[in-house]
Amino acid sequence: MAEGLRERKKQRTRQALIQAAMRLFEEKGFEETTLAEIAAEADVSTRTFFSYFASKEDVLFYDAGARLEGALARLSARRPGDTVADLLLQLIDDSIGQAIAGAGTFDAAAVRARLVLTVPSLQARALHVLLDSQLMLAKALHEAFRDRLTLSEAGATVGALIGAIMVAVMTDVDENRSVEEIMATVRRAGEIALAGLRALG
Amino acid sequence: MAEGLRERKKQRTRQALIQAAMRLFEEKGFEETTLAEIAAEADVSTRTFFSYFASKEDVLFYDAGARLEGALARLSARRPGDTVADLLLQLIDDSIGQAIAGAGTFDAAAVRARLVLTVPSLQARALHVLLDSQLMLAKALHEAFRDRLTLSEAGATVGALIGAIMVAVMTDVDENRSVEEIMATVRRAGEIALAGLRALG
DNA sequence: ATGAAAAACTGCAACGAGTGTAAAAAATAA
DNA sequence: TTATTTTTTACACTCGTTGCAGTTTTTCAT
Q1: Whether the Cβ atoms of residue B52 and residue B14 lie closer than 8 Å to each other
Q2: What confidence tens digit (pLDDT) does each residue in B122-131 have?
């Protein structure tokens, strides 16, 4: 773990950039925050920002990789008795759990959610990140259920579940529904998407 | 229909911009094509481009609005006997039909498909356009089946169907599957996503 | 037709994101 | 310490995008 000073310093710079960016995005909005400001706040040159993140948008999704890793681990830890639907619904529960857990303190997830809902370019980027995740999840699901699901079928399954939840939640958001209502919608969307799976076996 | 010279000229300029852009994207790639080149090819100033399209990416999706209109019309033309699943699968058939119909001549859809699959920013933008469409479709589906589907449920249904197809197709694309295989996957994904709907009634 | 009003187009200046490059600074290994 | 490797920095440049002010084109009432 002791990776040497160089590595530690890089992690510190990365964290500084993330925190500076999140703070500024929260405070003045995404488009109103300039890259120069983020770099200044993190005390590095503007150029250096780009050796840590490929774009201004990427900072916001700094933990996407870790999140995905967790989900993939869940899938590969499938126990013989688990059904496809059970395993996937577990993933959803996990995500909701994480969201609730982070509801105290300074919540990066909340800032991100607000930004993604209001800034078109961020929404687009979020969808792109989500698609990549779904492809990986599909692969993992296929591995976990080699006997029952082709890769395409695993893709359809993951896509149906995530797609159902995402669109249902967005309609709720458009209608200014409360958090409780949205949570209920997530459940219901999961049912709708996976009911077929149970029916088809 | 005769909207006057002004309107006709605007349509011509719009078409010129679209064709110039598509030709250049096809020829040299999206990122390699500069806005100045597109404008020059269409014989307008760079500045004028932006009174027709909000961004370079938007040109590629010039027909998204019309496509969506068509789908929405289909939904509102629901006849009393139609089930939700039938109506939605009809939409899918329509889209496939259009894709095949356009397979001759200079195919804008094919160019767009290739670009969307290879240029990350375009993929993100496409997903964003698709999400918006899904939200509208959900609203229309809700209107068409007021008695049976809440708005959230309509969202979940549309999201499940489109999500299933999209992710399944993308896994196929990643695996270099043939067009025939992909078409089969679309069918199968539709089944998986909507089987639950039939089961739930 | 003619001139005023509205709409569209243009050139120009400016800003910010992102990239290539070469030099400076910092960390590592010897 | 010195030599080597990695990281950071400054600088210059391209490109997408926007605001603005002035010019051209179309419309429309007379």
Answers
A1: yes
A2: 999 999 999 9
